[in-house]
Recover the amino acids of this structure.
């Protein structure tokens, strides 16, 4: 199932298409449901972009409009954070966390108006998921976050693969596969910390965490590798697996026993 913003949506070479959604950069399945949440991001930072919701049973999808998103700030966990400007909202990488019952938490990297991870509660009790914005995590100054994953203790792992203040230097480093970007952890109350042993990574991109929180798996795009970082050790143990492609997004398989890596 692929998304197409416009044009002919007829099946081609065994692939089916969904029209009417724009540049869905990341997708995440809501566990044990037919629903898939997608981001919609373009490089036009003044353009309104959207979260998208897909029904895998009917293979249909549509943008989640701002008026459909309730606002209920969690000022204890996310202090001093106002809702995003929906007119420039630019969701990118997605992460999902379970909170029990019929509620989940969605984490969406946002480039519209600010560099941040926006946090949404997702209510599944009424069939079609309903979204409530509850807070945000502002990214470190001078970074361009890409992907986000939840840690079992409520913290986040976030990647950044560019240096927005130096676009020419960024392009040069990406072309050469040189160290660029970062991977950090964020925890409520303590904020951002670097992950030791990752300074030489080249363009950290998609990221997931093992269910027990012992391992972080991150795509190194221009390094053409997937890195496995062992948590709980100082310094952490880092292992690499070549991909043969420029890896972008990564997700756990339905069984949770293997990784699905997408790239070009």
């Amino acid at each position: 199932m692929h998304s197409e913003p416009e044009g002919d949506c007829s099946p081609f070479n065994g692939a089916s298409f969904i029209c009417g959604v724009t540049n869905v950069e990341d997708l995440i399945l809501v566990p044990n449901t037919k629903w898939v949440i997608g981001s919609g991001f373009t490089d036009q930072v003044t353009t309104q972009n959207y979260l998208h919701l897909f029904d895998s049973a009917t293979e249909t999808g549509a943008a989640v409009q701002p008026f459909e998103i309730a606002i209920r700030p969690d000022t204890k966990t996310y202090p001093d954070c106002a809702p995003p400007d929906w007119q420039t909202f630019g969701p990118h990488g997605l992460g999902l966390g379970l909170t029990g019952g019929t509620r989940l938490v969605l984490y969406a990297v946002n480039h519209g108006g600010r560099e941040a991870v926006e946090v949404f509660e997702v209510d599944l009790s009424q069939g079609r998921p309903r979204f409530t914005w509850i807070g945000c995590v502002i990214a470190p100054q001078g970074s361009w976050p890409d992907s986000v994953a939840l840690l079992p203790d409520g913290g986040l792992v976030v990647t950044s693969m560019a240096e927005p203040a130096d676009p020419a230097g960024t392009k040069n480093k990406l072309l050469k596969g040189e160290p660029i970007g970062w991977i950090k952890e964020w925890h409520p109350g303590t904020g951002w910390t670097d992950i030791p042993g990752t300074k030489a990574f080249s363009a950290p991109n998609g990221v997931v965490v093992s269910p027990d929180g012992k391992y972080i798996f991150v795509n190194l795009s221009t390094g053409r590798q997937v890195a496995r970082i062992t948590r709980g050790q100082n310094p952490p143990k880092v292992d690499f697996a070549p991909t043969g492609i420029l890896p972008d997004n990564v997700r756990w398989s339905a069984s949770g026993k293997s990784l699905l890596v997408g790239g070009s």
Remarks:
- The chain is about 5% helix and 45% strand.
- The domain at 69-263 is CATH 2.120.10.30 (Neuraminidase).
